[in-house]
Design a protein that fits this description.
Elements (H helix, E strand, L loop, with lengths): L1 H12 L3 E5 L2 E4 H17 L7 E5 L4 H12 L3 E5 L5 H11 L3 E4 L12 E3 L23 E7 L7 E6 H11 L10 E4 L7 H11 L3 E4 L2 H5 L1 H7 L4 E4 L2 H8 L13 E4 L6 H10 L4 E6 L9 E4 L19 E2 L4 E5 L8 E7 L17 E2 L14 E11 L2 E7 L3 E4 L2 E4 H9 L6 E8 L5 E8 L5 H8 L11 E5 L12 H18 L5
Parallel strand pairs: 1-10, 3-4, 3-5, 5-6, 9-10, 11-12, 12-13, 24-25
Antiparallel strand pairs: 1-2, 7-8, 13-14, 14-15, 16-17, 17-19, 18-19, 19-20, 21-22, 23-24
């Protein structure tokens, strides 16, 4: 069980620091006692403890205590982001069937019909609380439920079982130099599965989780230095932000020993800049979709740039899957190919989506329609095109319209559906373009003759989470189309790129 990984470190390292967040430091025993007290309160105030419990909190003591309390009860966590639109949160709660939501006192709780909310007490009296039943060993039970962007216009639920997470933790145990005394960044939102590494891979090693605030994420070098971090883990776009701020200078992060990046493509340019700033750090590129439980492969960048391999598109390879996972490169007909879709199976592969109908087209051979549990021998189709070069997998692109924005999966179809649902928008296409040499930005081109593009974007922000809102909306008389009459995404991207270049040229010079 996921909680057992934390509990083992409580027994071994009770007085070592487990969590630092917002100026508060808690050792393993203190954090465990707070989680136990909250778990006991949930038991006391529930006729029946729900199988799934929502967690509406982020980057606060209640968030981490709440996560552990839910795991202590052997229930599934449904992370909810306070920054998401209320309608999206309501959909996630309803779709999950969560019967209770733990809410940080600082969060605005939307109206949730028939769902009880509970705000954790800052310091409950343990004497008033009942004992929590022992945690049963149930590896087939669900550990957490995450929602990713869906091509049909609604979020798609991905349930992950305890055996999937345990297989991942076993695979990475000792792999990234995590030991008692390590000080490790926590940069990912709890709605992002990489946060499970931030928490439980670190806690299972008796190391310290050091939580980055929103402002810290904009200044990663200062955060590393001020907190004497030994481990950094984030999306690669954090490197671009540090470069843009002029702070990623040589030898600026001497304390780092391991630097991990995941969630989007890591370029050689980014790797070179980070490596120069943290010369004592091993740099590793991780890869893995949510359905394969956090990460499933990695590539360690050689210490000497002279040994760096060539790779397509200037992107760092994704390595090979962890031991125990099988992989195949298949063409459109499901036959082995030198270049094609990466497919993976093994103990980290999830058992199927919350809505079994979403399994259609995601497995090879095809899963049975409506079957809630997909047979373990089937390959999960990642949708990522790869090729094998010099014994390592290289990422080439996607087979569909899914993109990564700051590490978040975004289905362009979901953004387009939300745009078309707005009054006055006749048609729309969403595209990604490079804002800088390495950072991708999300943009939209739409047919909305009587709408102001700024108003369209503002209205969209009420329906979609921040990472899915286009940075800019362009209004045109008609969408560009190819000779077959289909929307020409490449031409739409060119329109956006021209607009970006024009905006840059119009900016006043600064001295």
């Amino acid at each position: 069980m996921l909680y057992d990984w934390f509990a083992a470190s409580v027994a071994r390292h009770g007085t070592r620091p487990a969590l630092e967040v917002g100026g508060v430091r808690l050792d393993y025993r203190q954090l465990a006692d707070m989680a136990e007290s909250l778990a006991a309160r949930i038991v006391r105030e529930s006729d029946t403890v729900p199988a799934r419990i929502g967690l509406l909190a982020e980057r606060s003591v209640p968030a981490y205590v709440g996560y552990l309390a839910i795991q202590r009860l052997g229930r599934s966590v449904v992370p909810l982001n306070p920054a998401f639109p209320e309608a999206r949160t309501r959909h996630m709660v309803a779709a999950s069937g969560a019967g209770l939501v733990l809410a940080d006192p600082r969060s605005t709780v939307p109206s949730l019909d028939g769902v009880r909310t509970l705000t954790p007490d800052p310091a409950p009296d343990p004497a008033e609380l009942p004992p929590v039943p022992p945690l049963a060993d149930a590896p087939e039970s669900e550990a957490y439920l995450l929602f990713t962007s869906g091509s049909t216009g609604t979020p798609k639920g991905v349930p992950i079982r305890h055996r999937h997470v345990s297989a991942f933790l076993e695979a990475v145990r000792g792999r990234y130099g995590l030991v008692p005394g390590s000080r490790c960044s926590q940069t990912f939102d709890l709605t992002f599965d990489l946060s499970v590494f931030d928490l439980f891979a670190v806690w299972s090693a008796g190391a310290t989780v050091v939580v980055a605030s929103r402002n810290d994420l904009l200044r990663p070098v200062r955060f590393v230095v001020d907190n004497a971090l030994t481990h950094w883990f984030s999306v690669p776009s954090a490197i671009s932000r540090a470069q843009a701020g002029g702070r990623l200078t040589p030898d600026s992060m001497p304390s780092l020993r391991h630097s991990l990046f995941c969630g989007e493509q890591l370029t050689w340019q980014q790797a070179r800049a980070w490596k120069a700033a943290a010369p004592a750090s091993t740099l590793t590129n991780l890869y893995g979709p949510t359905e394969l439980t956090i990460s499933c492969s990695d590539f360690v960048v050689p210490p000497d740039p002279a040994d760096w391999p060539s790779s397509p598109h200037g992107v760092v390879p994704i390595g090979l899957p962890y031991r125990g996972l099988d992989h195949a490169i298949l063409d459109g007909s499901g036959r082995p190919a030198a270049e094609g879709e990466l497919c993976v199976r093994g103990p980290q592969r999830f058992s199927g989506y919350l809505d079994p109908m979403a399994n259609t087209g995601r497995f090879h051979p095809e899963a049975e329609a409506g079957d809630p549990v997909v047979a373990p021998d089937r390959w999960y189709r990642t949708g990522d095109r790869v090729t094998l070069r010099d014994g390592t997998l290289n990422f080439l692109g996607r087979t569909d319209q899914q993109v990564k924005i700051n590490g978040y999966r975004v289905e362009l179809g979901e953004v387009e559906a939300a745009l078309r649902a707005l009054a006055g928008v006749a048609d729309a296409v969403a595209v990604v373009c490079h804002d800088t040499a390495d950072a991708l930005g999300l943009y939209a081109v739409c047919v909305a003759p009587d709408r102001d593009p700024t108003d369209v974007r503002a209205e969209l922000a009420r329906d979609l989470p921040p990472y899915m809102v286009p940075r800019r909306v362009l209004v045109v008389a008609e969408l560009p189309r190819n000779t077959n009459g289909k929307v020409d995404r490449r031409a739409a991207s060119a329109l956006v790129s021209t607009e970006i270049a024009s905006t840059v040229l119009q900016r006043p010079a600064t001295g």
